[in-house]
């Protein structure tokens, strides 16, 4: 019996030693990951040390319940001016209200169950804002500050930064560093500092050039006409087109390939809408889903190839293989035809740029093409949904372009005030990007809290755009709010801007903003012009949204296209 007792004591000893070792290992591991995250995020070493110290101190205190540590509601909703009047109690990042933080896992538990799962993360943020106010703390491997107040967001996003810091998409970094045969050290979307600046200049000067884009308008006209013909061909007897996203993806790909590679791919006119292309569109969509999932949970994919990671890799390889094939085909054709050296296509200019290695150039071209597919498809789907609610709006757009047959010119686009107001209103009420991320480069006082440089903040522009504080009748699609009042000589008499106008930022802001904005302006306006010149539309399916890194329609879209009479 004694022996058995001694044995069990020994087992307990071994057990508790094992437990201790495990705990120490977990803490060390977590500290290491935290350190790594801070180091990779924070541009200023002294600030890094301060941030880590305060984060670790907070962990050691085991956070006795976020609710208990919240400042009173009146302080939580205080304005920066109020906070300035409270110099004695400087409130730090850890005083910011937010969901209960658990040791080691922070607030990650929120995403494991129920409604708050990642597909509905955008709705979870609405709830967070309602519950905790204008600034809310989430804790993942690092603290994340959620901003909902317009003034706070404007201060962060309008900070005059030379090289704005946006947190990298880690799963992309991990995968790309595992394929040094294909990718350079970083890419435009994830790079920071000087390297980002170099990539930005060398990869995007073609797609942002006003001259190049204006000369591209006739080609976009042709592509949009083909799109209208495709809609006609695909309509069922009652005029319904099922899986509208598929053709929206095709038109996005056709336009970006035409611009960047200088050639028509035939995705709308021929049977090149083949299996390979469908797989590409599916892979782009899926990869966004995996990216969004990679943000939540324990992120085991960083250390072992989990199913999520393997699926992501599968999609990335399909995207790379398919687009690289298109690029190399175009390159071969270009070399065969030996075109005039003055009129280089954008991709040839990129390939001939000095200072970047070939992998960076090829993967940069692939990134530009990939970025243009799903974003356009979602934006167009949301815009048509908003316009389908009003026959008058559709008629007004048709009217605006009634004189532009068969071709819409640059002047027609510039003068299409009502159509542009509809697009802007759709960006406000149903954006594809619900928030913008930044890493603070200086210390900031936001909503009365002191945030150190290096802090990761999410600016929830979607929620601000849907708030009555910023827009009257914020839940209604009212394009007229964007129209200036004019007199009989067309002079502006009243600007009528709403307080939140500056926070409608579908493409971001500052030097880091989307380089595809001007392309999208042209393609979206032209698509809408051609659609309503030809059809009256009606949404046949409900439109629910889900978060897939971008906001996307949750179910296949069915739209009825009736010929305009
Ligand atoms: C409706 C369509 C689109 C939307 C809503 C959209 C939105 C955005 C947003 C919000 C950002 C982040 C900006 C910031 O942090 O301030 C971004 C970045 C970016 N977008 Fe777009 N985008 C669209 C289309 C495109 C197209 C057509 C291209 C390529 C031709 C493109 C390429 C990129 C790239 C390369 C970046 C990273 C820029 C950088 O970090 O310097 N996007 N986009």
Automatic annotation (TrEMBL):
Residue stretches spanning the membrane: 22-41
Keyword vocabulary terms for this entry: Heme, Iron, Membrane, Metal-binding, Monooxygenase, Oxidoreductase, Transmembrane, Transmembrane helix
Pfam families: p450
InterPro entries documented for this protein: CYP11_CYP27_families, Cyt_P450, Cyt_P450_CS, Cyt_P450_E_grp-I, Cyt_P450_sf
GO molecular function: heme binding; iron ion binding; monooxygenase activity; oxidoreductase activity, acting on paired donors, with incorporation or reduction of molecular oxygen
Superkingdom of the organism of origin: Eukaryota
Binding residues for heme: 514
PROSITE patterns, per database record: CYTOCHROME_P450
Co-factor requirement: heme
UniProt-listed PANTHER family: CYTOCHROME P450
UniProt record similarity statement: Belongs to the cytochrome P450 family.
Entry protein name: Cytochrome P450
Organism, as annotated: Anopheles farauti
């Amino acid at each position: 019996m004694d022996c058995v007792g001694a044995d069990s004591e020994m087992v307990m000893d071994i057990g508790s030693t094992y437990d201790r070792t495990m705990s120490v290992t977990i803490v060390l591991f977590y500290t290491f990951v935290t350190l790594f995250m801070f180091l990779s995020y924070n541009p200023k070493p002294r600030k890094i040390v301060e941030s880590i110290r305060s984060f670790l101190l907070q962990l050691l205190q085991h956070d006795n319940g976020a609710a208990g540590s919240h400042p009173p509601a009146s302080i939580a909703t205080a304005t920066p001016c109020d906070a300035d009047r409270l110099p004695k109690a400087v409130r730090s990042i850890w005083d910011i209200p937010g969901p209960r933080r658990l040791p080691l896992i922070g607030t990650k538990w929120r995403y494991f169950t129920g409604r708050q799962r990642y597909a509905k993360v955008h709705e979870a943020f609405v709830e967070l804002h309602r519950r905790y106010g204008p600034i809310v703390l989430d804790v993942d491997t690092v603290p994340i500050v959620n901003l909902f107040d317009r003034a706070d967001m404007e201060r962060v996003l309008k900070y005059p930064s030379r090289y704005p810091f946006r947190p990298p998409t880690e799963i992309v970094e991990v995968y790309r560093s595992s394929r040094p045969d294909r990718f350079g050290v970083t890419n435009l979307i994830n790079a920071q500092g000087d390297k980002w600046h170099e990539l930005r200049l060398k990869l995007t000067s073609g797609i942002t050039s006003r001259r190049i884009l204006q000369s591209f308008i006739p080609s976009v006209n042709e592509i949009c006409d083909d799109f209208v013909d495709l809609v006609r061909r695909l309509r069922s007897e009652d005029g319904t087109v099922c899986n509208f996203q598929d053709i929206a993806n095709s038109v996005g790909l056709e336009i970006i390939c035409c611009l960047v590679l200088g050639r028509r791919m035939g995705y709308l006119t021929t049977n090149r809408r083949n299996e390979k292309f469908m797989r590409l569109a599916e892979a782009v969509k899926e990869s966004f889903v995996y990216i969004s999932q990679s943000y939540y949970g324990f992120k085991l994919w960083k250390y072992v190839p989990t199913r999520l990671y393997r699926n992501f890799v599968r999609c990335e390889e399909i995207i790379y293989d398919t687009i690289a094939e298109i690029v190399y085909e175009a390159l071969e054709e270009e070399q065969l035809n030996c075109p005039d050296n003055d009129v280089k296509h954008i991709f040839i200019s990129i390939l001939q740029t000095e200072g970047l290695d070939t992998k960076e150039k090829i993967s940069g071209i692939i990134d530009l093409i990939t970025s243009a597919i799903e974003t356009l498809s979602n934006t167009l789907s949301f815009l048509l949904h908003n316009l389908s609610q009003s026959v008058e709006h559709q008629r007004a757009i048709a009217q605006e372009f009634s004189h532009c047959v068969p071709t819409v010119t640059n002047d027609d686009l510039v003068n299409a005030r009502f159509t542009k107001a509809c697009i802007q209103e759709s960006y406000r009420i149903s954006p594809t990007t619900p928030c913008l991320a930044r890493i603070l480069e200086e210390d900031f006082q936001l909503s009365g809290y002191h945030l150190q440089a290096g802090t990761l903040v999410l600016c929830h522009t979607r929620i601000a755009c849907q708030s009555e504080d910023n827009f009257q009748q914020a839940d209604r699609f009212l394009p007229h709010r964007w129209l200036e009042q004019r007199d009989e000589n067309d002079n502006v008499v009243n600007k009528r801007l709403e307080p939140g106008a500056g926070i409608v930022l579908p493409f971001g802001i500052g030097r880091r903003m989307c380089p595809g904005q001007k392309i999208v302006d042209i393609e979206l306006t032209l698509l809408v012009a051609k659609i309503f010149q030809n059809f009256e539309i009606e949404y046949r399916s409900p439109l629910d949204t889900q978060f897939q890194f971008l906001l996307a329609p949750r179910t296949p879209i069915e739209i009825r296209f009736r010929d305009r009479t």
